[in-house]
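Researcher: Structure prediction, please.
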Amino acid sequence: MPTVLLSAAPAQLEDLRRDLEAGGFAVVGHDLGAAPAVDFAPVAVAVVVAGPVAAAASQTRRWRAELADEFVPVLWLVDRADAVPAGLDAGADVCLVQPVEPALLAAQLRALARTRASTARVSTRAAEARLLGDQLRQAFARLDADRDLARRVHRAALPVELPAGVSVCHRPRGRIGADFYDVRRAGDRLAFLVGDVPGRGGATGSLLGLLALRAAFPPGDADLDSAAALARVNRELLALGLDDPPLVALLAGVADGDSVTVARAGLPAPIWLPADGEAEAWAAPGPFLGTAEATYPALTRTLNPGDRLLIGTDGAGGGDALLAAARRHRGVDGAAFVEAVAADVLPAAPDGEDVTLLVVARGL
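Model: Predicted structure follows.
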């Protein structure tokens, strides 16, 4: 049963109240022009018997100010047609000239009550949407903070100083970066790795990269073996037991005096640049890590003075693009070589894709 706030002079209240109640409305009486604030919460429609018009206009404007953004329909009943503009200007939604058929008045009030109910539902949903927006903003702020922490941890895990014979160009182009690399010496031997976590940017890619860094060449491991390094990382990833297994691309290698051994898992084929001879892609086979039990055969080549091995992640193009860039800049020595190759491949790198290049050389 809709509730109607009936505002009229005391002499007019009772007759109109009876008509409205007979039409199925609950009626709350209000003396026209009375100062006390009105509780509009239960009110579906406010009916104002506008006599005198000036008092009704003043009261309607006050109600609109008190209601602010809350919508309560206001219907004016006027004695003259020329009072209709004054009612609409004061904030009335409908003005009816008396006498009005009770059935017409009841139908109009029911229509306004439906409008009030629809508006209330929309307002509720808007409030819920604002609350959801606030919650999403807070969630994104927390996510940004988590990303910032992951980025700091990821970068802190990468080596700061590189041994002689190694040059790196690392260009993280995402919010965190999913490429990773490591280089370490153990006596006369040099262990190195370059990896990527395709399709797993953000904190997930960073965490998987850190896991691979830890597992490939554990601290204090004197038995440096490139194939064993990939097998360890693969076991660690499979042991996570994730419903959506992660893919990790990784190349691990060990340079030992005059030889270099590599094992590859998913990463583009490295580029072999002998001091004398044509540059070529070194197609060491190997599936991605984290998919299934697999073996990763190691390949070995003699590392003569001036020979270089160039390793790049997917962002560097791999294949023919990286090979062509290496051939164009092979006359450049030292760290300038990897920077020149990076400048060549970066313009073609996919948006947001990290680019990492690592060069291992003898006699740099």
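Model: Residues 3-125 form a domain with the Rossmann fold fold (CATH 3.40.50.2300).
Researcher: Thanks, that helps.
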